[in-house]
Amino acid sequence: QQISRMLMKLFRRARLVKPGQVDPRAAEFTLSLLVAMYDRSGTGYVKTRSAAAALISLSGDTLLAKYRAFFQFYAVSDGKESLITRSALRSLLTDLNQIPAIVGEGCTMSCVEIAIHDCFHGVLNAAIAEEKFLSWLRSEPAVLLWLPTCYRLSATEMVSHQARCR
């Protein structure tokens, strides 16, 4: 219910900003997608953080903005700074991998574990700072290769060339 209300509010604002470009059923469709991805057992419960990760990844924002938002949602504070732990990264990657999984392109837990190991390679601490996390994401880890690929595809949709084809 809470996510449904939030989606209705979000898409109502989007319709005001872009009149005629947002389907009136966008909130309903998005909620159905989130439920299909994160509530496969039919409990009626979707974690807010999981829904936020999906909405961030499917947004039209830049990759860097998406990566920073992921960090913000999954990091924990140690008093001085925010850090992301192995367990938080596992949650993020598991949540994000529900997106390609919905179209039959999911990855196994072993590839998530490999990605975590890669991200924390050479790190002695239990958690990493935002810059290390962003640097790892910019290297386009295989487990999330779909994310920059989808971003590039959506970015090219707006490109127009003043050339005529024969």
Automatic annotation (TrEMBL):
**Any Gene Ontology CC annotation:** synapse
Q: Which GO terms describe its biological process?
A: synaptic signaling
Q: Which SUPFAM superfamilies match?
A: EF-hand (SSF47473)
Q: What region holds the EF-hand domain?
A: 64-153
User: Which superkingdom, per the lineage?
Assistant: Eukaryota
Pfam families, alphabetized: EF-hand_3
Protein name, as recorded = DYTN protein
- PANTHER family from the UniProt entry: DYSTROTELIN, E3 UBIQUITIN-PROTEIN LIGASE KCMF1
Q: Which InterPro entries match?
A: EF-hand-dom_pair, EF-hand_dom_typ2, KCMF1/Dystrophin
